[in-house]
Amino acid sequence: MIEDSETIDEFLARHASDVEEAMRKAAAAEIMPRWRQLAEHEVDQKNGPHDLVTDADRKAELYLTRALPALLPGSVVVGEEAVHANPASYEAIRGDAPVWIVDPVDGTRQFVRGEPGFCTLVALALDGVVRASWTYAPALDLLALAIRGRGATLDGEPLHAGSPEPGRDLDVATSHPDYTTQEQKAALLGLWTQGVAPRPCGSAGLEYLAIARGRLDAVAFSWEAAWDHAAGLLLVEESGGAHLTVADEPFRITGGNALPFTAARDAATARRVRGLLTAGA
To answer: Keyword set for this entry (predicted)?
Structure first.
């Protein structure tokens, strides 16, 4: 556990692997035994048919809510399912304590369908700044780590997003239309233009990982929930990428962002996608 005199940087140097171990144990105990084995009563809707929650989401979040503060005394957890039950708990992101931001199963629709495209996301933030993040895809056996100022790795190997190949259409993953306002839909329509190949997004966490790996050029998203974005945005940053809102500002996990926003393999691509979004608005 962290000592009183330790800083967050010192904690991460000593315990980043302990967070990974906690995530692997949560997945082994609560997620993977239910993958392709879900009973009907283990799946519920939260805000409609595209917003699902399962027993795997709930139980994995409870596991991590116990395990993570035990590593860092004085820290708190903001988890997707706990916030759904008590929206006021989201305010901890704006507080003074170190905060673990947890999405136990990102890509629940894919998980329910028995597809491998889901992951567990954990980010550690302090004063509104994400200091470290972990992206674990148990069905794909992938673990990405990003530590602010120290780079990003995938299974221990450095990640470098690079830049899109000149002359090729930009591959851009976009928000599901069900989660966009009319104004946001108009902005996203700016991507339906020559030189861009937009498609609906899957798991946000895995889309961010695809950017960090140089396998996706950008995303354009229209919602703010920190558990979907905190881990992946740091992963993109630390692999050389950038993110911008339509107000030409980096995305803030504390909220109040002008939407949609983009994250991309490099700053030039982020500016290009932002320009298309503002042209469509």
So the answer is: Hydrolase, Magnesium, Metal-binding
Residue 181 pLDDT exceeds 60: yes
pLDDT recorded at residue 46: 64
Mean pLDDT of the chain, nearest integer = 93
Distance CA 20, CA 146 (A): 12
Output the CA torsion sign for 257, 246, 135, 198. Answer: positive
Query: Cis omega (within 30 of 0) on the bond before 260?
Result: yes
Do both 153 and 175 map to the same domain?
no
What global pTM score does this model have?
Answer: 0.94
Residue range 108-123: mean pLDDT, rounded? 95
DSSP letters for 187-254: HHGGGSSTTEEEEE---HHHHHHHHHTTS--EEEE----HHHHHHHHHHHHHTT-EEEETTSS---TT
**Structural domains counted in the chain:** 2
Is the same domain home to 182 and 254?
A: yes
Q: Is 164 among the domain residues?
A: no
Buried b vs exposed e over 40-49: b needs ≥16 C-beta within 10 Å?
eebbeeeeee
2 within some domain: no
| Residue 1 located in a structural domain | no
Does some domain include residue 3?
no
Host domain of residue 107:
8-158
Mean pLDDT (whole number) for 245-249: 97
Confidence of residue 218 (pLDDT cuts 50, 70, 90): very high
Residues 219 and 135 in one domain: no
At residue 2, the pLDDT reads: 42
Does residue 208 sit in the same domain as residue 149?
A: no
Q: Cα–Cα distance between 222 and 72 in angstroms, integer?
A: 32
Q: Is the separation of the CB atoms in 128 and 226 below 8 Å?
A: no
